[in-house]
Amino acid sequence: MPKQKTNKAVAKRVKITGTGKLMHFGAGKRHLLSGKSRRRKRRLKRGRLLAACEMKRLARLIG
């Protein structure tokens, strides 16, 4: 049986943590930053864990 291919679009957007959870960075940090508060921009810097239901689906795509 052939190996499952990694979905490169997902692999570029999601990182696997040391404990095996999936982490992603939110949208909204590329442009039009002058209108956003300092606090909002600071929080957008940090990565966030995916929801459990999304984790199962995307973990399958990463392989």
Describe the structure.
A three-stranded antiparallel sheet has the order 1-2-3. It is an alpha+beta fold and 63 residues long. It has three helices and three strands. The longest helix is centred in the last third of the chain and has 11 residues. Strand 1 and strand 2 form a beta hairpin.
Q: What is the CATH architecture assignment?
A: Irregular
Give the helix level as a range of percent. Answer: 25-40%
Please summarize the sheet with the most strands.
3 strands, antiparallel
Shape from CA axes? Answer: elongated
Number of continuous helical runs: 3
Rg measurement, Å: 15 Å
Total beta strand runs: 3
Compute the average pLDDT: 93
Supply the number of structural domains: 1
| Percentage beta strand | 5-15%
Question: Uncertain regions: pLDDT < 50 for 5+ in a row?
Answer: none
List the helices and strands and how they pair.
Layout: H1 8-13, E1 14-16, E2 22-24, H2 38-45, E3 48-49, H3 52-62
Antiparallel strand pairs: 1-2, 2-3
Summarize the structure.
By secondary structure, the chain is of the alpha+beta class. The protein contains 3 helices and 3 strands, in the order αββαβα.
